[in-house]
Amino acid sequence: MRRKLIAGNWKMNNDLDDSLALVEELKSLSGKFDKDADVLICPAFVNLYHVKQSLSGFDIKVGAQNMHFEEVGAFTGEISPAMLKNIGVDYVIIGHSERRQYFNEVDETVNKKLKAAHIHGIIPIVCVGETLKQRESGIEKETVKNQIIKGFENVDGSEAVKTVIAYEPIWAIGTGRTASSRQANEMAYFIRNCLSEIYSSDISDKVIIQYGGSVKADNAKEILTQSDIDGALIGGASLKAEEFYKIINYAK
Ligand code: 13P
After folding, report:
1. Which of 14, 32, 158, 197 could form a disulfide with 19 if both were Cys (CB 3.0 to 4.6 A apart)?
2. Residues 178-208 pLDDT 10s
3. 240 SS3 class
4. Cα-Cα-Cα-Cα dihedral sign, residues 142, 195, 231, 83
């Protein structure tokens, strides 16, 4: 039985004061969070440490939105996996489409980061998804399969099973245009089959596959009750405590 993972990707929003204020609101609601869901928030790098400290004793996980794959060295502006681990970061988002689009992130770097995260005991959330053009050309599955194959190249089954995948169709991110629950589930099922081909059904059955792209309180239940969708990666709607809380408690 796969647990649900409800994750907020705060992107480049919230300074330290805003981040801590939002955390306080989430803490006050956390006693009423659905016990069947794991809850994760991913603030900006500069706020990670303070957010993590503030959440001490609360069952809300903290993740980074990116990291470098190298251990240490002359990589100006980068953050290493060890640095994240050292401040108690539990998860890291890898290969988000915004990073692929604006910061030249490619499947090869996703692969390196995925491996580096596991070496340090950080759970990677690997983002995959097609553009609108790719979907309209009917190559969305081929695109995602390619991202999975390259992203998981030479990744051991024992690590694959602990990797989270977020299916985020680019045309649904921040657009208010959600994939239909059928489209989202079909792709999640397809991704699971890809993993089954690479590894085994035993492994693919255990992998958490999230959907991301304009998830809101009012569409969360429809999406999160699909057979192969095990959670959501939420942008805009995770910036409001009450809205995020409603998504966490979609089942109620
Ligand atoms: P929105 O929920 O704002 O569409 O963002 C989705 C996303 O990119 C999460 O990583």
Report:
1. 14
2. 889 999 999 999 999 999 999 999 999 999 9
3. coil
4. negative
The CATH homologous superfamily for domain 4-248 is: Aldolase class I (3.20.20.70)
- Ligand 1 pocket member 174 (CB < 6 A): yes
What is the distance in A from the centroid of ligand 1 to the CA of 118?
24
| Residue 213 Cβ contacting ligand 1 at under 6 Å | yes
Q: Read off the amino acid at residue 198.
A: I
Catalytic, 25? Answer no
Query: What are the domain boundaries of the chain?
Result: 4-248
Report if pTM > 0.90. yes
CA of 85 to the centre of ligand 1 (A): 25
Task: State the burial class of residue 192 (Cβ atoms within 10 Å of its Cβ: 0-12, 13-18, 19+).
Answer: buried
pLDDT one-digit tens code per residue, 115-174 = 999 999 999 999 999 999 999 999 999 999 999 999 999 999 999 999 999 999 999 998
Sequence-separated contacts (24+) of 153-158 with Cβ below 8 Å: 153/111, 154/111, 154/115, 155/111, 155/114, 155/115, 155/118, 157/199, 157/200, 157/203
Q: Are 156 and 177 spatial neighbours (Cβ–Cβ below 8 Å)?
A: no
